[in-house]
TrEMBL record:
<keyword id="KW-0067">ATP-binding</keyword>
<dbReference type="GO" id="GO:0000160">
    <property type="term" value="P:phosphorelay signal transduction system"/>
</dbReference>
<dbReference type="GO" id="GO:0006355">
    <property type="term" value="P:regulation of DNA-templated transcription"/>
</dbReference>
<dbReference type="InterPro" id="IPR058031">
    <property type="entry name" value="AAA_lid_NorR"/>
</dbReference>
<keyword id="KW-0238">DNA-binding</keyword>
<dbReference type="Pfam" id="PF00072">
    <property type="entry name" value="Response_reg"/>
</dbReference>
<keyword id="KW-0597">Phosphoprotein</keyword>
<dbReference type="InterPro" id="IPR025662">
    <property type="entry name" value="Sigma_54_int_dom_ATP-bd_1"/>
</dbReference>
<dbReference type="Pfam" id="PF00158">
    <property type="entry name" value="Sigma54_activat"/>
</dbReference>
<dbReference type="Pfam" id="PF02954">
    <property type="entry name" value="HTH_8"/>
</dbReference>
<dbReference type="InterPro" id="IPR011006">
    <property type="entry name" value="CheY-like_superfamily"/>
</dbReference>
<dbReference type="GO" id="GO:0043565">
    <property type="term" value="F:sequence-specific DNA binding"/>
</dbReference>
<dbReference type="InterPro" id="IPR003593">
    <property type="entry name" value="AAA+_ATPase"/>
</dbReference>
<keyword id="KW-0547">Nucleotide-binding</keyword>
<feature type="modified residue" description="4-aspartylphosphate">
    <location>
        <position position="51"/>
    </location>
</feature>
<keyword id="KW-0805">Transcription regulation</keyword>
<dbReference type="Pfam" id="PF25601">
    <property type="entry name" value="AAA_lid_14"/>
</dbReference>
């Protein structure tokens, strides 16, 4: 795969071509928009580096045509210094990034390496999806997955190997590490990529709707069942069902899920008829499911049935090398204006431990960008816990503090309701099942006597 450079300034063009060839890239050049399109048709292009202002067709016109022909193409615009509004506009058109003139070659190389790596992952996904869906009307969309650290490379290599088989996969990892993103990638790389991917968060379904949500119901099966409903299993038929937070499934449903997986059929609530299903199940949890099984809170046979194959997504603090690329990704994805980072800001962000992992980083960037006063993020634009991690650490990390608070609230509600669980659950506004689960989690028991 090659890099295309389109620039009408011969000096700059030659400089960029020479520089990138020296870095080992294969490069093709064009002197204007029309030639750029001709080169694009002639060569396999992974990344287009387009001057925004060219005679004839401008960079953004060329970009729009190329992206329409190949959505997997990565593109970067070269803009005039300070042309902030133009840059924002071209990013809306689908450019992944931009760089200002005069081009800083070191910065350019960093951006190119990142985009080429994203292109490699996206093409990997698309290569497989193409073979299965080459009759589909729409081109596959790239999955934005950042990660070039050794830990992520290992994870991605395992994902590629897992994807081919039909077995259930159990994805484990702390909250926000990207378990759902991995499940989507497994699906996209699998032979059933053109079939549906249905995701359901088991922690978010009210107790009384669980069975109907998973298996569906017939009209009139219960009071509010005004019409027939197809459950997640049926909707995912032929494809992949992603059961997030599987550790939260109530015991009765665990047995039904196990039966569905073993017998490969389900029955809608209120129906007498079995429906055959052919679904690959991927489950995820941020709990220690083995420990839950050992403690009798999760069916052991279901645990083993789910973890035929398993994948652990490493926490972000164990792959800090990915942090700069993730930041860049979130900045360019959400930017309404082109924001950059002061070196000290990046330094603080790379050092922080992220108990909430990639999701926390994503929120920190969104928040800081919204509140930032200038176009360069300074340390004072970052939240307190990142600027002064030692102060936050002295009272425990965010998760520990939240756990302590939750435990105290549970204890207070239980004492107030004289340890009658129904009453305590009602007072806390949670179901009894969730209350029992939390009592187990914090080892809370009614005091003897
Ligand atoms: N490698 C990655 N590249 C880009 N974005 C990522 C990556 N990993 C995670 N994200 C983003 O981080 C957020 C959290 O990811 P995701 O929902 O997959 O995590 P999770 O482990 O399933 O979380 P939870 O345990 O809370 O269910 C999402 O917005 C996702 O797009």
């Amino acid at each position: 795969m090659k890099i295309l450079i389109a620039d009408d300034d011969p000096l700059q063009r030659e400089l960029l071509v020479g520089f990138l060839e020296k870095q080992g890239y294969q490069v093709v050049a064009a002197a204007d928009g029309h030639e750029a399109l001709a080169q694009f048709q002639r060569h396999p292009i992974a990344l287009a580096l387009l001057d925004h202002r060219m005679p004839g067709l401008t960079g953004d016109q060329v970009l729009a045509q190329m992206k329409a022909a190949n959505p997997l193409l990565r593109a970067m615009l070269i803009t005039a210094y300070g042309a902030v509004e133009t840059a924002v506009q071209v990013m809306k058109l689908g450019a992944d990034d931009f760089i200002e003139k005069p081009v800083d070659l070191k910065q350019l190389l960093g951006k190119i390496e990142q985009l080429m790596q994203r292109h490699a992952v996206a093409t990997d996904v698309a290569a497989v999806t193409h073979t299965v869906t080459n009759t589909a009307a729409t081109a596959p969309q790239p999955l934005d997955l950042i990660g070039d650290s050794p830990a992520m490379r290992e994870t991605l290599s395992l994902v590629r190997r897992l994807a081919d088989s039909p077995w259930t996969v159990l994805i484990q990892g702390e909250t926000g590490t990207g378990k759902e993103v991995m499940a989507q990638l497994i699906h996209q790389l699998s032979p059933v990529a053109s079939a549906p991917f249905v995701a359901v968060n088991c922690a978010a379904i009210p107790d009384n709707l669980f069975e109907s949500e998973l298996f569906g119901h017939e009209k009139g099966a219960f009071t509010s069942a005004e019409r027939q409903h197809r459950g997640c299993f049926e909707r995912a038929n032929g494809g992949t069902l992603f059961l997030d937070e599987v550790g939260e499934l109530p015991a009765a449903l665990q047995s039904k899920l196990l039966r569905a997986l073993q017998e490969k059929h389900i029955r809608r609530v209120g129906s007498e008829r079995d429906i055959a299903i052919d679904v690959r199940v991927i489950a995820a949890t941020n709990r220690d499911l083995r420990a839950l099984a050992a403690a009798g809170q999760f069916r052991e046979d279901l645990f083993f049935r789910l973890k035929v194959l398993d994948l652990t997504v490493p926490p972000l603090r164990e792959r800090r090398a990915d942090i700069p690329a993730l930041i860049q990704h979130f900045l360019t994805r959400d930017a309404r204006r082109p924001i950059q980072l002061a070196p000290e800001t990046l330094d603080l962000l790379v050092r922080y431990d992220y108990p909430g992992n990639v999701r926390e980083l994503e929120h920190i960037i969104q928040r800081s960008v919204t509140l930032a006063r200038g176009l360069v993020l300074q340390p004072h634009d970052l939240p307190e816990e990142i600027r002064h991690p030692a102060a936050a650490a002295s009272t425990g990390d965010l998760q520990t503090q939240l756990d302590t608070l939750e435990r105290d609230l549970l204890l207070a509600a239980l004492e107030k309701s004289e340890w009658i669980q129904t009453r305590a659950a009602e007072q806390l506004g949670i179901s009894e099942r969730v209350l029992r689960y939390k009592l187990g989690k914090y080892g809370l028991r009614r005091p003897a006597g």
